[in-house]
Amino acid sequence: MSAFIGLQCHLCKTMFPALAIYVCDKCLGPLEPVYDYSAIRVTREEIAKRPKSLWRYRELLPIEGEPRTGFNSGFTPLVRCDQLAKRLGVRELYIKDDSVNHPTLSYKDRVVSVAATRAVELDFKVLACASTGNLANSVSAHAARLGLECCVFIPDNLEAGKLLGSAIFKPTILAIAGTYDDVNRLCTQVADRYGWGFVNINLRSYYAEGAKTLGFEIVEQLGWRYPQHVVSPVAGGTLLPRIVRGFRELRTVGLVEGELPRVHAAQAAGCAPVVRALEAGLDYPELVRPDTIAKSIAIGNPADGYQVIECVRETGGSGSAVSDAQIIHAIELLAETEGLFTEPAGGTTLAATVDLIQRGLIPPDESIVICVTGNGYKTAEVVQDRLAAPVRLSRSFKEFESWWESRGFAAEVKS
Ligand SMILES: Cc1ncc(COP(=O)(O)O)c(C=O)c1O
Ligand SMILES: [Zn+2]
Questions:
Q1: What is the domain-level CATH number for residue 121?
Q2: Cα 335 from Cα 322, distance rounded (Å)
Q3: Among 27, 160, 219, 329, which residue carries the largest CB count within 10 Å?
Q4: What is the whole-number distance in angstroms between the Cα of residue 13 and the centre of ligand 2?
């Protein structure tokens, strides 16, 4: 059912077999799946009848047999946000809400569903990853369900909720003294030596394709049309270029028409290698040492930084780097206006959107989709001290009444 043919180098276009390989041995470019688009004849109506998961676009996903996991992952809500739109002074605004992705509450359930299925097809016995937290949660959950050994590598300074979200599934957790970039370097060596299936290293070509489904869903949920702007967070740089790739593929197979959206990159000012490169007119980001509360997107050496920069430029998008204070303010704004609770990655994306609107880079009368990719319950510590404590009372009605009336409200007596 898939039109998947094999892997191809993004830069020099050399073809490779569909194995656990991810870099071109000729030019070191990243490898990406290729499909026979002419063989894809699926219609909007057929897709509409399929189960509401990321596998409804399986013709455009790089697996050979049947999906093995992620049967409820993806197809997250596209929430029309009129209250927030009013606050920002824009006309048509949506949140693509991957903070409620199944089963681990982040966009990573998309990429892991595809990578884990491919890991089973390629006969890996150990599923592993280098992670800033959310990926480890998702790999741990999907590995548990598939009965695979699991080993996740994380920096040793993650939030308690991120650690809990992996530990409950009983993987081996390695908390490494260092940044994500140090963790990733170690994992590359482990993957080479032990032959484990690292979803974001040797299975990266498959993993990244799962992220396209977020773009597919935006188009389908808007009634098979493109929005005019999409704002995406950027860490390793998987998501943003795959949203664009997904948008292009839908047009190639005839499911949508029109002009591609402008796709904008959101980063925290304390870790903004891609936004700085866009500002400086560079093709490749320069490495930075992260320092931000947005730990899930604190990647100073993004694997796909080049592709993010390429896609932002090609679509006419731009970049925005926002401070930790702006991130927290945006988390609160989203909660107050729309009843959605995101983690700092989502706060970053909303804060960047506000900045792009203020700078005139997103005109107020154009349609905007903001990708919210992670859940606030996992990072309670970033807002906890700012929230009102509950009013503590005894069980006595009298006490309630005197507290209520002390606030200047008299009881309304019903006749
Ligand atoms: C919540 C969240 N959003 C976004 C990202 C962006 O990752 P990437 O740019 O690698 O797709 C990550 C992961 O690293 C994440 O955990
Ligand atoms: Zn190449």
A1: 3.40.50.1100
A2: 19
A3: 219
A4: 6
For 56, the token pair is 């409804």
- Gap between the Cα atoms of 121 and 68, Å rounded: 9
User: Mutate which of 134, 245, 274, 295 to test ligand 1's pocket (most atoms within 8 Å of Cβ)?
Assistant: 134
Does residue 103 have a cis peptide bond before it, meaning omega lies within 30 degrees of 0? yes
Q: Assess whether 228 and 202 both reside in one domain.
A: no
Ligand 2 centroid, distance to 30 Cα (angstroms): 7
Please identify, by atom number, the ligand 1 atom nearest to the C-alpha of residue 106.
1
Question: Beta-carbon neighbour count of residue 403 at 10 Å?
Answer: 12
| 98 CA: nearest ligand 1 atom | 1
DSSP for 184-228, please give it.
HHHHHHHHHHH--EETTTTTHHHHHHHTHHHHHHHHHHTTS---S
Round to whole Å and give the CA distance between 31 and 259. 27
Residue 315 domain boundaries: 78-104+209-386
Q: Please count the structural domains in the chain.
A: 2
Q: Please give the full DSSP string across 23-60, using - where no structure is assigned.
A: B-TTT-PBEEEEE-GGG----HHHHHHS-SSGGGGGGG
Q: Give per-residue pLDDT as tens, 277-322.
A: 999 999 999 999 999 999 999 999 999 999 999 999 999 999 999 9
Q: Is 210 in the pocket of ligand 1 (CB under 6 A)?
A: no
Residue 324 lies in a domain: yes
Q: How far is the CA of 12 from the centre of ligand 2 (A)?
A: 4
pLDDT in tens, 184-206: 999 999 999 998 999 999 999 99
236 in Cβ contact with 188 (< 8 Å): no
Q: Is 237 in the pocket of ligand 1 (CB under 6 A)?
A: yes
Kindly report the pTM of this predicted structure.
Answer: 0.97
